[in-house]
Predict the structure.
Amino acid sequence: MSRGRLLLAPLVFCLLAGVFGAAGAGSGTRAATTISFGITDDAMKYADDGGAFLFGDLTDLGMVENRVIVFWDENTPRKILEENFVDRMMPVAAASGIRIVLAIQPIHALAFSTNTPAKVAAFASYVGAVARRWPQVREFVIGNEPNVRRFLQPQHTADGSIVSAGVYEQILAASYDTLKGIDPGIKVDGLALSPRGNDQGVGVGAESVSPVRFIAALGAAYRKSGRTTPIADVVDIHAYSNINTQPLTRSYQWPQAGAADLDRLKQAWWDAFHGTAQPVFQEKGDPARPGGYVTFRIDESGTQVKIDPTKVDTKLYTGTENVPLVDEATQARYYNDLIGLVKCDTDVQTLDLFHLIDEPLLLGFQSGLLRVDGSKRPAYATVKKAIAAAHTGAKPHTWRHTTGVIGARGQFNVTTKLAAQRTFWSTVATGEEATVQTGIFPVSPSTLGAESLRSALVGAGSSTGVTQLGGLVKANTSRSFKLRGKLVPGRYVYAALMKATMDPDRTTLLVSRPFTIR
């Protein structure tokens, strides 16, 4: 068996600096990373001291920000919720040198399910009211995991089409315009995507959309709208492991994406928005451009820990745990590795861990650097040390988009065959979902050119006498096609034209070496 010509553009990610080196490091024009670190935690907002004690820990850790939620209730659309708590927290954060990032999100998943345009306008107005209420806040996250049914409904129409991305595009666009109208210097963070989705349709209880597919649908909605201005300055993602006990640095399979799959998300964003007014991620060698480039905010990432009765009074926690847990030493190692991973990526502006201090209810998150009584876990010292070293020894990871199908490869039987043979096999595989059209073609100057083969495979060329077949190839799988027909003696090649379903303009043509029919 002989493999066909392989045009492969693998998604690579920055390996742990100092251990394996940095994938994609080079002599590009980009400077070393300027990543900052913080916490996603509302505990400061609710603390009687305005968060002074906890902000002190952030400063000690070398962290500079706290992302805090401000909810919106469509039933009282003008009322700023928990305003007094945020008022109490703001001056304490400022005195501690901690910047506050506000995540404004609907409190009900069905908030936009009816009378959508009016609800979107009301939400954007609320976003503006919050920005005016606390002008010291310079960055806002719009929404929360809009690819998950728990936070935005509906996710799909009855025919399986993704509807949540189109609704969210309206929400994000209206919020962007409102915030930029107040101050063009405000940063608008979009998405806050869950790293996983089951891509199941209506009627599935945990219905959700995978991040790659959600971004594709968001881009389609943006293009359909005819909008000529951006909708986001920052792409916000949540980077949890698929199972709590797994490392935060473990890669997901396409179309899911976590901290180790940032290049996959960059490609998805490029597929969705290249050629539009919405900026994409900067690539190696790209010059400065008007409007700049988007960056990443990883504003939720954490691993839940088993409560150690020798370290804390377990009576301070209530309820029953609902996920498998790791021990404290494992959590520390996972956090160290996560920081070592993302610090190399020049497109990551911020990593916020989730949380600083445990939630007392076990159904919530016990992922803190502090136990619920304020005592420090081993991860506290580990994270402090990792942050201190984050701006030294990091080899910058750079990225370029691909115009081909990721992971495309073919395997063709090119042994000499007899003219009586009527069945031929073509096998292709891919690292992302793609369509394929495959066939057999005679070797001649007129048919062997790439354009001639492409034309033939899309039906614009002459037939070879062997039936051409096509279909869908799922990500990370292979598919074999049984070609039937009579070939006269001569020299032939197999060819397969693959197209990425997320962007059909991205294609790869696979061609075998010639084989003989006697």
Notes: The mean pLDDT is 90. The radius of gyration is 26 Å. The longest strand covers residues 490-500.
